[in-house]
Amino acid sequence: MKKWKYLTMTAVLGSALALGACGGGNETKDNNGSSNTGGNKTEQTENEDKLQGSVAGDGSSTVAPIVEAVVEEYAGAQPDVKVSVGVSGTGGGFEKFIAGETDFSNASRNIKDEEKQKLEEAGVEYTELQIAYDGLSVVIHPDNDWATDLTVDQLKKLWIEDGTEKKWSDIDPSWPDEKVVFYSPGTDSGTYDYFDEVILDGEDLVKSATLSEDDNMLVQGVAGDKNAIGFFGYAYYLENKDKLGIVKVDGVEPNADTIESQEYTPLSRPLFTYVKNDAMKENEAAYDFMHYLLENAGDMAGAVGYVSLPEEQYKEELAKLEALK
What we know:
Layout: H1 11-22, E1 27-29, E2 35-37, H2 43-49, E3 53-59, H3 64-77, E4 81-85, H4 90-98, E5 104-107, H5 113-121, E6 126-135, E7 137-140, E8 149-150, H6 152-159, H7 168-171, E9 181-185, H8 190-200, E10 210-212, H9 215-223, E11 228-232, H10 234-239, E12 245-246, E13 248-249, H11 256-260, E14 268-276, H12 277-282, H13 284-304, H14 311-322
Parallel strand pairs: 3-4, 3-5, 8-13, 9-10, 9-11
Antiparallel strand pairs: 1-2, 5-14, 6-14, 7-11, 7-12
Membrane topology: Lipid-anchor
Domain PBP: 46-295
Family: Belongs to the PstS family.
Protein backbone atom coordinates (compact mmCIF):
# COMPACT_ATOMS: atom_id res chain seq x y z
CA MET A 1 0.00 0.00 0.00
CA LYS A 2 1.32 3.40 -0.86
CA LYS A 3 2.37 5.87 1.81
CA TRP A 4 -0.61 7.86 3.05
CA LYS A 5 -0.79 11.27 1.45
CA TYR A 6 -2.23 12.96 4.51
CA LEU A 7 0.97 12.29 6.47
CA THR A 8 2.56 15.20 4.66
CA MET A 9 -0.07 17.44 6.23
CA THR A 10 0.70 16.25 9.74
CA ALA A 11 4.41 16.93 10.02
CA VAL A 12 3.95 19.34 12.91
CA LEU A 13 1.60 16.94 14.66
CA GLY A 14 4.01 14.07 14.07
CA SER A 15 6.95 15.98 15.50
CA ALA A 16 4.96 16.82 18.58
CA LEU A 17 3.94 13.19 19.05
CA ALA A 18 7.50 11.97 18.65
CA LEU A 19 8.85 14.53 21.09
CA GLY A 20 6.16 13.73 23.59
CA ALA A 21 6.87 10.02 23.35
CA CYS A 22 10.57 10.61 23.86
CA GLY A 23 10.09 12.80 26.91
CA GLY A 24 10.64 16.27 25.40
CA GLY A 25 13.62 17.95 23.82
CA ASN A 26 14.82 20.78 26.09
CA GLU A 27 18.58 21.24 26.30
CA THR A 28 20.17 20.99 29.77
CA LYS A 29 23.71 21.16 31.08
CA ASP A 30 25.36 18.49 33.20
CA ASN A 31 27.80 19.22 36.00
CA ASN A 32 30.69 19.40 33.54
CA GLY A 33 28.93 21.96 31.35
CA SER A 34 28.15 19.41 28.62
CA SER A 35 24.85 19.58 26.79
CA ASN A 36 22.17 16.91 27.21
CA THR A 37 18.87 16.75 25.30
CA GLY A 38 15.71 14.96 26.36
CA GLY A 39 14.42 17.02 29.28
CA ASN A 40 15.85 15.91 32.61
CA LYS A 41 16.93 12.49 31.36
CA THR A 42 20.57 11.63 30.75
CA GLU A 43 21.54 9.90 27.53
CA GLN A 44 22.10 6.68 29.46
CA THR A 45 18.56 6.76 30.89
CA GLU A 46 17.11 7.45 27.45
CA ASN A 47 18.95 4.46 26.01
CA GLU A 48 17.57 2.27 28.79
CA ASP A 49 14.05 3.39 27.79
CA LYS A 50 14.53 2.15 24.22
CA LEU A 51 12.95 -1.18 23.36
CA GLN A 52 13.93 -3.85 20.88
CA GLY A 53 11.65 -6.35 19.25
CA SER A 54 9.03 -6.82 16.59
CA VAL A 55 5.27 -6.40 16.36
CA ALA A 56 3.06 -7.84 13.62
CA GLY A 57 -0.44 -6.79 12.60
CA ASP A 58 -2.77 -7.23 9.65
CA GLY A 59 -6.36 -6.65 8.65
CA SER A 60 -8.58 -3.84 7.45
CA SER A 61 -7.42 -1.50 4.70
CA THR A 62 -9.86 1.05 6.14
CA VAL A 63 -8.11 1.07 9.51
CA ALA A 64 -4.64 0.96 7.92
CA PRO A 65 -4.19 4.73 7.37
CA ILE A 66 -4.55 5.41 11.10
CA VAL A 67 -2.24 2.60 12.16
CA GLU A 68 0.34 3.33 9.45
CA ALA A 69 0.44 6.98 10.53
CA VAL A 70 1.05 5.90 14.13
CA VAL A 71 3.75 3.45 12.98
CA GLU A 72 5.59 6.32 11.28
CA GLU A 73 5.61 8.33 14.52
CA TYR A 74 6.37 5.38 16.75
CA ALA A 75 9.56 4.76 14.77
CA GLY A 76 10.86 8.04 16.16
CA ALA A 77 10.07 7.01 19.72
CA GLN A 78 11.25 3.40 19.49
CA PRO A 79 13.52 3.04 16.44
CA ASP A 80 14.65 -0.47 17.41
CA VAL A 81 11.11 -1.90 17.35
CA LYS A 82 10.01 -3.22 13.97
CA VAL A 83 6.25 -2.85 13.40
CA SER A 84 4.76 -4.48 10.31
CA VAL A 85 1.15 -3.91 9.23
CA GLY A 86 -0.48 -5.92 6.44
CA VAL A 87 -3.73 -5.01 4.68
CA SER A 88 -5.35 -8.29 3.67
CA GLY A 89 -8.81 -7.10 4.75
CA THR A 90 -10.67 -7.60 8.02
CA GLY A 91 -11.48 -11.24 7.30
CA GLY A 92 -8.00 -12.00 5.99
CA GLY A 93 -6.50 -10.32 9.03
CA PHE A 94 -8.56 -12.47 11.40
CA GLU A 95 -7.38 -15.59 9.56
CA LYS A 96 -3.77 -14.64 10.33
CA PHE A 97 -4.74 -13.70 13.90
CA ILE A 98 -6.32 -17.14 14.39
CA ALA A 99 -3.25 -18.85 12.88
CA GLY A 100 -0.99 -17.10 15.40
CA GLU A 101 0.83 -15.01 12.80
CA THR A 102 -0.01 -11.58 14.25
CA ASP A 103 -0.12 -9.73 17.57
CA PHE A 104 -3.04 -7.50 16.58
CA SER A 105 -5.73 -7.46 13.91
CA ASN A 106 -7.34 -4.31 12.49
CA ALA A 107 -11.06 -4.50 11.72
CA SER A 108 -13.72 -2.28 10.22
CA ARG A 109 -16.46 -4.41 11.77
CA ASN A 110 -17.01 -6.45 14.92
CA ILE A 111 -15.56 -9.93 15.05
CA LYS A 112 -17.95 -12.61 13.77
CA ASP A 113 -19.22 -15.54 15.86
CA GLU A 114 -17.41 -18.06 13.66
CA GLU A 115 -14.15 -16.14 14.09
CA LYS A 116 -14.66 -16.09 17.86
CA GLN A 117 -15.18 -19.86 17.80
CA LYS A 118 -12.01 -20.47 15.78
CA LEU A 119 -9.99 -18.30 18.17
CA GLU A 120 -11.38 -20.25 21.12
CA GLU A 121 -10.49 -23.54 19.42
CA ALA A 122 -6.98 -22.22 18.81
CA GLY A 123 -6.66 -21.21 22.47
CA VAL A 124 -6.26 -17.52 21.60
CA GLU A 125 -7.66 -14.97 24.03
CA TYR A 126 -8.15 -11.47 22.68
CA THR A 127 -9.41 -8.00 23.56
CA GLU A 128 -11.38 -5.64 21.32
CA LEU A 129 -10.22 -2.01 21.28
CA GLN A 130 -12.09 0.74 19.46
CA ILE A 131 -9.87 3.41 17.91
CA ALA A 132 -12.03 5.74 15.74
CA TYR A 133 -15.23 6.27 13.74
CA ASP A 134 -15.64 6.04 9.98
CA GLY A 135 -18.41 6.93 7.56
CA LEU A 136 -18.55 4.32 4.82
CA SER A 137 -18.71 6.55 1.73
CA VAL A 138 -20.59 5.95 -1.51
CA VAL A 139 -18.73 7.62 -4.39
CA ILE A 140 -19.42 8.40 -8.04
CA HIS A 141 -17.61 10.01 -10.97
CA PRO A 142 -17.47 13.82 -10.59
CA ASP A 143 -19.40 14.26 -13.88
CA ASN A 144 -22.30 12.25 -12.48
CA ASP A 145 -24.79 15.02 -11.58
CA TRP A 146 -27.88 12.82 -11.19
CA ALA A 147 -27.09 10.28 -8.43
CA THR A 148 -25.72 12.72 -5.88
CA ASP A 149 -28.38 11.96 -3.25
CA LEU A 150 -29.63 8.39 -2.88
CA THR A 151 -31.98 6.84 -0.37
CA VAL A 152 -31.17 3.59 1.37
CA ASP A 153 -33.90 1.92 -0.70
CA GLN A 154 -32.29 3.20 -3.92
CA LEU A 155 -28.92 1.86 -2.79
CA LYS A 156 -30.54 -1.53 -2.19
CA LYS A 157 -32.13 -1.49 -5.65
CA LEU A 158 -28.79 -0.62 -7.22
CA TRP A 159 -26.54 -3.04 -5.36
CA ILE A 160 -28.67 -6.17 -4.77
CA GLU A 161 -28.43 -8.81 -7.48
CA ASP A 162 -31.81 -9.36 -9.11
CA GLY A 163 -30.87 -10.99 -12.42
CA THR A 164 -31.19 -7.79 -14.46
CA GLU A 165 -28.67 -5.50 -16.13
CA LYS A 166 -28.72 -2.44 -13.89
CA LYS A 167 -29.22 0.93 -15.55
CA TRP A 168 -29.42 4.35 -13.95
CA SER A 169 -32.84 4.82 -15.53
CA ASP A 170 -34.08 1.84 -13.48
CA ILE A 171 -33.72 4.01 -10.38
CA ASP A 172 -35.21 7.16 -11.89
CA PRO A 173 -36.61 7.34 -15.47
CA SER A 174 -35.14 10.84 -15.85
CA TRP A 175 -31.61 9.47 -15.32
CA PRO A 176 -29.38 8.21 -18.19
CA ASP A 177 -30.30 4.96 -19.89
CA GLU A 178 -26.77 3.75 -19.28
CA LYS A 179 -25.43 0.60 -17.60
CA VAL A 180 -24.19 1.13 -14.03
CA VAL A 181 -20.60 0.08 -13.40
CA PHE A 182 -20.00 -1.19 -9.85
CA TYR A 183 -16.83 -1.21 -7.74
CA SER A 184 -16.81 -2.87 -4.31
CA PRO A 185 -14.33 -3.96 -1.63
CA GLY A 186 -13.59 -7.69 -1.71
CA THR A 187 -15.41 -10.26 0.38
CA ASP A 188 -12.55 -10.42 2.91
CA SER A 189 -13.13 -6.74 3.65
CA GLY A 190 -14.95 -5.57 6.78
CA THR A 191 -16.31 -2.74 4.65
CA TYR A 192 -17.97 -5.31 2.37
CA ASP A 193 -19.41 -7.09 5.41
CA TYR A 194 -20.76 -3.85 6.88
CA PHE A 195 -22.37 -2.82 3.58
CA ASP A 196 -23.84 -6.30 3.28
CA GLU A 197 -25.37 -5.99 6.75
CA VAL A 198 -26.87 -2.49 6.58
CA ILE A 199 -27.66 -2.10 2.85
CA LEU A 200 -27.94 -5.55 1.27
CA ASP A 201 -29.66 -7.20 4.26
CA GLY A 202 -27.72 -10.36 3.50
CA GLU A 203 -28.76 -10.51 -0.17
CA ASP A 204 -26.18 -11.09 -2.92
CA LEU A 205 -24.17 -8.15 -4.25
CA VAL A 206 -24.55 -7.46 -7.98
CA LYS A 207 -22.55 -10.07 -9.86
CA SER A 208 -21.18 -7.52 -12.33
CA ALA A 209 -19.28 -5.64 -9.60
CA THR A 210 -15.50 -5.43 -9.72
CA LEU A 211 -14.21 -6.49 -6.28
CA SER A 212 -10.82 -5.60 -4.81
CA GLU A 213 -9.20 -5.54 -1.37
CA ASP A 214 -7.17 -2.55 -2.60
CA ASP A 215 -9.22 0.62 -2.02
CA ASN A 216 -6.92 2.59 -4.30
CA MET A 217 -7.91 0.34 -7.19
CA LEU A 218 -11.57 1.09 -6.43
CA VAL A 219 -10.79 4.81 -6.47
CA GLN A 220 -9.17 4.50 -9.89
CA GLY A 221 -12.10 2.51 -11.25
CA VAL A 222 -14.77 4.99 -10.18
CA ALA A 223 -12.66 8.00 -11.20
CA GLY A 224 -12.25 6.53 -14.68
CA ASP A 225 -15.90 5.88 -15.62
CA LYS A 226 -18.78 8.36 -15.66
CA ASN A 227 -21.28 5.57 -14.95
CA ALA A 228 -19.36 4.05 -12.05
CA ILE A 229 -20.35 3.85 -8.39
CA GLY A 230 -18.40 2.40 -5.47
CA PHE A 231 -17.92 2.51 -1.71
CA PHE A 232 -15.08 2.49 0.83
CA GLY A 233 -13.85 4.30 3.95
CA TYR A 234 -14.24 8.06 4.29
CA ALA A 235 -10.48 8.72 4.44
CA TYR A 236 -10.01 7.30 0.94
CA TYR A 237 -12.66 9.67 -0.37
CA LEU A 238 -10.94 12.64 1.31
CA GLU A 239 -7.60 11.72 -0.21
CA ASN A 240 -9.18 11.55 -3.67
CA LYS A 241 -12.00 14.10 -3.48
CA ASP A 242 -10.51 16.05 -6.38
CA LYS A 243 -11.40 13.15 -8.71
CA LEU A 244 -14.50 11.69 -7.03
CA GLY A 245 -18.03 12.79 -6.22
CA ILE A 246 -19.63 11.94 -2.87
CA VAL A 247 -23.20 10.66 -2.53
CA LYS A 248 -25.53 11.89 0.18
CA VAL A 249 -27.54 9.13 1.82
CA ASP A 250 -31.10 10.17 2.64
CA GLY A 251 -29.97 13.80 2.33
CA VAL A 252 -26.96 13.52 4.66
CA GLU A 253 -23.37 13.88 3.45
CA PRO A 254 -20.60 12.12 5.38
CA ASN A 255 -18.29 14.50 7.23
CA ALA A 256 -16.68 14.66 10.66
CA ASP A 257 -19.80 16.09 12.31
CA THR A 258 -22.39 13.77 10.76
CA ILE A 259 -20.24 10.69 11.31
CA GLU A 260 -19.55 11.48 14.98
CA SER A 261 -23.20 12.33 15.68
CA GLN A 262 -24.36 9.18 13.81
CA GLU A 263 -26.60 11.44 11.70
CA TYR A 264 -24.98 9.81 8.68
CA THR A 265 -26.91 6.61 9.13
CA PRO A 266 -26.75 3.69 8.58
CA LEU A 267 -23.21 4.01 7.21
CA SER A 268 -21.42 5.49 10.24
CA ARG A 269 -19.42 2.76 11.98
CA PRO A 270 -16.72 2.16 14.59
CA LEU A 271 -13.19 1.00 13.72
CA PHE A 272 -11.32 -1.52 15.85
CA THR A 273 -8.08 -3.29 16.53
CA TYR A 274 -8.06 -6.65 18.30
CA VAL A 275 -5.04 -7.56 20.42
CA LYS A 276 -3.81 -10.98 21.46
CA ASN A 277 -3.80 -11.04 25.27
CA ASP A 278 -0.69 -13.22 25.56
CA ALA A 279 1.23 -10.92 23.22
CA MET A 280 0.39 -7.94 25.42
CA LYS A 281 1.73 -9.82 28.47
CA GLU A 282 4.80 -11.44 26.94
CA ASN A 283 5.92 -9.06 24.18
CA GLU A 284 6.91 -5.74 25.73
CA ALA A 285 7.30 -4.13 22.32
CA ALA A 286 3.78 -5.18 21.27
CA TYR A 287 2.25 -3.79 24.46
CA ASP A 288 4.21 -0.55 24.15
CA PHE A 289 3.14 -0.03 20.54
CA MET A 290 -0.53 -0.66 21.29
CA HIS A 291 -0.36 1.74 24.24
CA TYR A 292 1.19 4.36 21.95
CA LEU A 293 -1.50 3.69 19.34
CA LEU A 294 -4.35 4.31 21.78
CA GLU A 295 -2.67 7.44 23.15
CA ASN A 296 -2.34 8.93 19.66
CA ALA A 297 -5.15 7.33 17.63
CA GLY A 298 -7.47 10.31 18.14
CA ASP A 299 -5.02 12.82 16.68
CA MET A 300 -4.06 10.52 13.82
CA ALA A 301 -7.65 9.60 13.01
CA GLY A 302 -8.45 13.26 12.48
CA ALA A 303 -5.24 13.82 10.52
CA VAL A 304 -5.96 11.09 7.96
CA GLY A 305 -9.67 11.79 7.56
CA TYR A 306 -11.53 9.77 10.18
CA VAL A 307 -13.28 10.86 13.37
CA SER A 308 -11.72 10.48 16.80
CA LEU A 309 -13.52 9.02 19.80
CA PRO A 310 -14.36 11.12 22.84
CA GLU A 311 -11.30 11.49 25.08
CA GLU A 312 -13.03 9.59 27.87
CA GLN A 313 -13.48 6.58 25.62
CA TYR A 314 -9.78 6.48 24.77
CA LYS A 315 -9.10 6.38 28.52
CA GLU A 316 -11.47 3.42 28.79
CA GLU A 317 -9.73 1.60 25.93
CA LEU A 318 -6.33 2.25 27.53
CA ALA A 319 -7.61 0.83 30.82
CA LYS A 320 -8.66 -2.34 29.00
CA LEU A 321 -5.19 -2.66 27.51
CA GLU A 322 -3.38 -1.91 30.78
CA ALA A 323 -5.41 -4.59 32.54
CA LEU A 324 -3.73 -7.17 30.27
CA LYS A 325 -0.18 -6.26 31.30
